[in-house]
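<amino_acid_chain>
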Amino acid sequence: DGRVAVVGERNWAMTLPAAGVPVVSSVFFYPQPGLWRALDPTGAQRDVYNRYQRLLLELAAQPGEQPWRIESPRLDEVRVTLDPQRFDFRLLGARFVLTPRANADALRRNATLDLLVQADGPNGFALLRVK
């Protein structure tokens, strides 16, 4: 499975599925049960993500023990904010992570990722492999 987790770029999360690339983050008519079981095994936050949703993955340091935060700032949007250094990207069920170049340095220090490709410039990106 070559699923891609698009982190920090909303347009890529919409464009890749249109090109036939399987993604973790995009628009889903039904909740993704495997993802939510991995992030919320007890279902404590089921009310937040159990809906039609535009799933967005973002990066930001997370205080406390849990290296992610699930929230729904709008009725049709679920945002998962991941700690770039502590989050275990294997939980997403993706083989790759695609992110804007600005996030690459923070993600390089994550033990569950390997940098594959990095492109600089105005549309720069980083592609990382999940270990």
